[in-house]
Design goal:
about 650 residues, 7-stranded mixed beta sheet, 27 helices
Amino acid sequence: MCGVAGIIDYSGRDDSIGAVEAMLRSFSYRGPDESGIYHSPVAAIGHVRLSFTDLVSGQQPLSDMTGRYWIVFNGEIFNHIELRKELEEKGIKLTSRSDTEVLVNLFALYGENCLGLLNGQFAFAIWDKLEEKLFIARDRVGKRPLFYTMANGALYFASEIKGIFRNPEITRTLNPENLAQIYTFWTALTPATAFKGISELSPGHYLTFSKEGLTVRKFWELNFCKSESAISLSDALERFHELFKSAVQLCLRADVEVAAYLSGGIDSSATVAYIKDLKPGVLKTFSIGFEDKDFDESKYQEEAIRYFNTSHRAISCTSKEIAEAFPKVIWHAETPLTRTAPTPMLILSKLVRDNNIKVVISGEGSDEVLAGYDIFREAIIRRFWASQPSSSLRPMLLKKIYPDIPHLHNASPNILKMFFGYRLEETANPLYSHLLRWNNSNHIKKHFSDHIRESINGYDPLTDLAGRLPESFMDWSPLARAQWLETTIFMSGYLLSSQGDRMAMANSVEGRYPFLDYRVIEYCSTLPDKLKLNGLNEKYLLKKLMSGRIPESIIKRPKQPYRAPISSVFTGSERPDYVGEMLSEEMTRLAGIFNKDSVAALLAKIEKSGTASEMDNMVLAAVISTHLVHHQFIENNNSEFRSEPLSNLKIIEENK
């Protein structure tokens, strides 16, 4: 795993090497092993490397065999061994074992069509010195980040926004409409980011930039069948087993030790089971627990550890530790958050790195591709309830899927209607499955300042999203629509970014996700709904597959979503000083995003009651995180930007 950055300026600039070096320094933790910059009169592209494959060679930037194309690459091409054979059969001589050399030579041979051959997680840039043209691409579901902007006719790109901000000519302003998206969907809708003028290359897209201008095109998209296939359970189990086994096998490819997360759920347990089958021996595993037992899964983690006999390291996280680490989380996430859940993942990745591990395999993606989230079951119950909206029995089914929400245990039908009945009968709405969740998030916007309300001027994120849906969206089943929304928005924009890449790479750790092998994703999208969500039995196919291969108690355990405490983190006598500063009237006025009286009233309400509702928790996290973003990236004007030295910096000069 690595970091990339670059500036393409056809007018030429004298300081491009120094500028790109400064960009790389801002996120050198992404690649502490080596660094390099390629420089020509027009282009400067740079790279910091965290090495896993071909540890001796493979330093970047690196060229194809002709020297025409130069690449900087963040990620892994898992099937590079097979692709290498294809290149060699065509007479292309490779000088290293690195997947980077395979990739740049594939591009030289096939151009953008090489993207369809790649199985991996990637964000890379290739400079064509002959045509003076830049090509940038990002993997199918957005496992690796890449951002860009234009200023004075020049293109700037980097793995992290802070790298782009190292250039003083780039303005830094939060975008009110994009904030409205974040406070609805938990993430901005790509290519938008929290910052005005800063774009994210969308997953499954590539960008070209030349003297003629900039273009962005799609090379892959998530799709579902219009009609269900008639595949049998046994055939589906066999095919899924083959694909998932292959995916895990590819994720194990590395010249360094590979470990795994073991959370105590079915996803990580399945992943570990396949790793143990493919690579018998001692496997290092890692997990995180919570001092607050409402969030803790240690009991199941310990059962999985005993079952698989792994060499395990665990850490228990306190509210105080979450509070202390939260500013660092925002520094790495580079966006407001409505949750503290990324923070324990940052703490966990540090534990991994402290144990000299660079690569860790994780179970992310299973809930999306196999319909494991409660939101999918909730939508089924709400549709069932909507056909008889006056029923007092149908809403009671919601208790079955939310055993982890204490105040629902003895809730009456009227309480359930009040909590879950939002726009209940709008079953024809294409966004129906997520309307309730997004309405709960919407409460954050009730605390906006007058200035932000005027700036948004009636902008509605849901209307915006509805206009972006695929043409065939309404031809899919309701479950498929819900999966598309969850995968395309939440998973790519939040789970794999703020909770994934950013928290792992902060400690120079790469996460790998076999459930998100594109072959697994595409296969699962063809499966009948009943093999994913059978009645209210989520991840049906995976449970059947893993029966007898992991503890039965883990297969049958109630679904417990990964969460972390919020109000207990930011209130009380032990909260860090910065929390008071971020919630102060002065900061609220300075940032200008929220209404100072509304924020003060919310805080008083929480402190008086000693508890907070789910919606109040989201508002609290949103205000603190947004003010941290403003403080770290706008108010301080580079004063907090790190300038860490680069390891083994190599500069390649190209004279025209």
